[in-house]
Amino acid sequence: MESIRKALLDSSAARQVHLFNAGLDALSEIVEHEHPDLLILDWISTNAADLSVIERLIMAYPSIAVIALCDKPDSDFLINSMRVGVRDVLPLPLDTTALLASVMRVEQRLKPGSHNAQTRGKVIAFIACKGGSGATFLATNLAYVLAAREDVNVALLDLNLQFGDAALFVSDQVPANSITDVTENISRVDASFFAANLVQVLPNYGLLAAPENPENAVGVKPEHIDVIMKIARANFDYVILDIGRMLSAVSVRALDQADMIFPVLQETLPFIRDSKRLVHTLLSLGYAKEKIHLVLNRHEKGGDIRLQDVETALDMEVFKTIPNSYDTVSKSVNQGIPIYKVDKHDPVTKALLELSEQLLKKPQSKESGWFSRIFQAA
After folding, report:
1. Which residues, in sequence order, are CB contacts of 248 under 8 Å at separation 6+?
2. SS3 (DSSP) at 319
C-alpha cells in the first residue's frame, strides 16, 4: 500500500491518496465518507459474491472508477470484472508503470472539457435490412465525417464476422489484425492493446476489422463483446457498429449496448418486406421503438414508392434519408476513399454531415435488451 501511495505521489504531488486496510463490508462506508474519483482494490477474488459487492458499489456510485489488482487473473475473471464495471484489472506483482498509465487514463477523463466520468461513448449500430443496402458504406463514412469534422474520437467495429470488409471503404491498408486477434488475447486486452489492433484511418478514427477468414470468427464469443465494448466506450466518444445483416448471439450482445440502431433500407418492395421483419425482430428482442431509427438510402423523390409509403408500411418515421448519388459513391467505394475526401459538396456527403450534427445533439438511451439481461442474471 505504501509503495502504491509513493508511486502515485511521486508521479503527481497534486494527487490525494488515502489508504485503508478493510474488508468488502467497509467499502460503501469508505466511499460515502471520502468520495474518491478512483478506487484501487488490492484484493479482488474470483468469488461471484465478492464481485457482486463491487457491482452494487459501482451502480450506487457510477462516477467512481475502479482498478482491481489480482494475482494471475484469468480470462474469465477479466470478463466478469469488466462486466460488473471494473475499469482495469492489473496483475500482481504490480507493474508500477502499468498502474500509473491506468490512473492517468482515469484522470484524463476527469479533466474539464473531456468526456465526463459519468458518461460513456455513444454507440451507433448500423444493420442492413437486406444485402446491398449500403449499411457498411454509411457506417464507415459517417465515422470518418465524425472524426474529420466534429473533432471526436471514433472507433468502428466490423461485426459482420463472416464477410465483413469495412476497412476497404475508407482505407487502402490491409488490416494486419482483426477482432479475432483481440479475442484470442482477451486476458491482455486493455486500451493500448485494443488500439494496437485497429486500422488507423485518421489519428482519431480507428477501425477494428472483421477476420479475413470466416472460419476464424467461430472463436468470437458474446462475452468477448462485453470486454471489447467496455474498452471502446471508455476510450472513444463514438463507437460505430457495422452489424451486417445476420443477427447472432454476438451481434445481439453488441446491439444490447447500442444507444441508437440504424436499420438501412432502400425504396423497393423486397427491402420494405425485409425491413418489416427486421424491425419486428428488434422489437421482440426488447429494444424500445424509440431506439430504432430508419435510414432510407439512395432516396429519390418522385419514385414509384414514396417516402410516405415506406413509413406507412413500417409504421415508423424515417429518421434520415440519404440521396442517390451513384457516380460519386461508386468512385468512393471503388477507390477505398471516404466520400468526404472525394467530394465534400456531394449530396451524400452533405447528408452524412447533417447526420453527424444530429447525433451530437441526440440524447443517449439507457435501454438494454433481453440478451444482456439474461447474462447479467446468470
Report:
1. 161
2. strand
87: three-class secondary structure by DSSP? coil
- What are the C-alpha distances in Å from 312 to residues 10, 112, 316? 65, 46, 7
Cell 505521489 maps to which residue? 9
Let me know: does 83 contact 89? Beta carbons within 8 Å: no
SS3 at position 258: coil
Lowest average pLDDT, out of 169-178, 268-277, 368-377, goes to: 368-377
For 129-163, write each residue's pLDDT tens digit. 999 999 999 999 999 999 998 879 999 999 999 88
- pLDDT tier at 94, thresholds 50, 70, 90: confident
Which pLDDT belongs to residue 120?
A: 72
pTM across the whole model: 0.66
Cα-based torsion angle of the residue sequence 16, 22, 28, 31 in order, rounded to the nearest 10 degrees = 0
Q: For residue 341, which amino acid is it?
A: K
* β-strand partners of 371: none
Cell numbers placing 182: 483481440
Residue with the bigger pLDDT between 134 and 121: it is 134
Give pLDDT, residue 154.
Answer: 97
Question: Which are the contacts of 247, defined by CB distance < 8 A and separation ≥ 6?
Answer: 255, 281
Query: What confidence score (pLDDT) does residue 74 get?
Result: 74
- Structural domains in the chain? 2-110 (3.40.50.2300), 122-377 (3.40.50.300)
217 and 114 Cβ atoms separated by less than 8 Å: no
pLDDT, greater one: 322 or 253: 322
Which backbone phi and psi does 44 adopt, to 5 degrees? -35, 130
Q: Are 178 and 209 a contacting pair, CB within 8 Å?
A: yes
For residue 25, give Cα distances in angstroms to 29, 40, 350.
8, 16, 56
- Three-point CA angle 295, 296, 302, nearest 5°: 155
Question: Can you tell me the distance from the alpha carbon of 209 to that of 199, in angstroms, rounded to the nearest whole number?
Answer: 7
Q: Is the pLDDT of residue 304 over 90?
A: no
User: Which strands sit side by side in the sheet containing 65-71, from one edge to the other?
Assistant: 38-42, 65-71, 88-92
- In terms of C-beta density within 10 A (0-12 exposed, 13-18 middle, 19 or more buried), how is residue 366 classed? exposed
